[in-house]
Specification:
The protein is mainly α. It has helices spanning 9-28, 33-42, 85-91, 96-101, 111-127, 137-163, 170-204, 209-223, 229-237, 246-250, 283-295, and strands at residues 60-63, 80-83, 227-228, 265-270, 273-278. The radius of gyration is 25 Å and the shape is elongated. It starts with 8 loop residues before the first helix and ends with a helix. The mean pLDDT is 83.
Length: 296
């Protein structure tokens, strides 16, 4: 009996991110055989982390900065280092500084030697002119957004194909259209109900991370109707009670899905700048709750 193969959305998401990083890397430098040999010579055919001599068949190359949406590492000299399968597996998805500073690896990197190893690897990046400046917080945040957008695109197509099969008659076309429109309306109605429940709670307990983000936005919004994501993040950072990742808390307030925090924001672009505004479908709910909050 034939089995249905599982192709999770994350496969497409990770492929898109890797493709972006790979294409950026190709435009910034080459990784041919001679480059790899130069890297091996630089480290004297030893593991870049432990300094242990490596046989030719033992060499595997590791990325100091992982090539994924979280870290945004590039496939370039200055980021590739020789190591062994054992060390490569132990490092796993960490960047090199996290790996070396991890206390569980004190057997590999004694406390008094950790900084020395880190400095040596940073010097290698510098010697091979690795373009660290490109991997900014905005860069990795954008990769995370693209990763999320892919899921939304796939889900949109799934709905499109489910509800827009070739109709046999004009009535079927109208029915499919109505089903899709009804589905979208239900999503919005459910989201409005979620926001109506949650926003008053956020404004009641202003120590919540979502509360801090929302109040920071409304403070900026009162001064100017145009607020950038960067401005909002800076305003949030002023609150000592905010101790979590900004993007990790902000993003679920901009999207619709089962476990989101409630869509109150909409992100858009003005030129190259990412801007944020209240989502039109929940704007009145948020502003009404904020008005009550200020009157208390």
């Amino acid at each position: 009996m034939a089995k249905r193969k599982n192709y999770p959305i994350s496969n497409a998401q990770n492929s898109i991110v890797r493709s972006i990083l790979n294409n950026i890397s190709e435009k910034m430098g080459t990784l041919d055989g001679s480059t790899m040999e130069n890297i091996l010579k630089y480290f004297n055919y030893k593991c870049a982390y432990t300094g242990k001599k490596l046989k030719k068949e033992e060499v595997v190359f590791d990325h100091l900065i992982p090539c994924n949406r979280k870290y945004g590492g590039l496939y370039l000299a200055g980021n590739l280092v020789p190591t062994s399968k054992e060390i490569n597996a132990k490092k796993s998805g960490k960047d090199f500084i996290e790996f070396i500073n991890d206390e569980r690896n004190n057997d590999l990197f004694p406390k008094e030697k950790k900084q020395e190893v880190i400095d040596r690897l940073k010097e290698y990046q510098k010697d091979f002119e690795y373009p660290k400046d490109i991997v900014t917080k905005d860069f990795t945040n954008r990769l995370a957004e693209i990763y999320s957008e892919v899921e939304g695109i796939i889900n949109t197509y799934v709905l499109e194909f489910l509800y827009t099969e070739p109709p046999k008659a004009e009535k079927e076309l109208d029915l499919n259209k109505n089903v899709l429109e009804s589905f979208e309306k239900n999503l919005i109605v459910n989201e409005k109900l979620k926001v109506k429940r949650r926003v008053p709670k956020w404004l009641k307990d202003t120590h919540q991370q979502n509360s801090i983000i929302l109040l920071a936005f409304l403070k900026l919004y009162e001064k100017s109707n145009e607020v950038s994501v960067e401005q909002l993040e800076e305003e949030v950072a002023k609150n000592k009670g905010f101790h979590k990742n900004f993007q990790g808390n902000f993003k679920p307030m901009t999207e619709i899905y089962d476990n989101n925090h409630g869509k109150v924001f909409e992100v858009y672009y003005k030129g190259q700048q990412r801007m944020v505004k209240l989502w039109s479908n929940t704007e009145k709910i948020v502003l009404a709750a904020y008005k009550e909050y200020k009157q208390q």
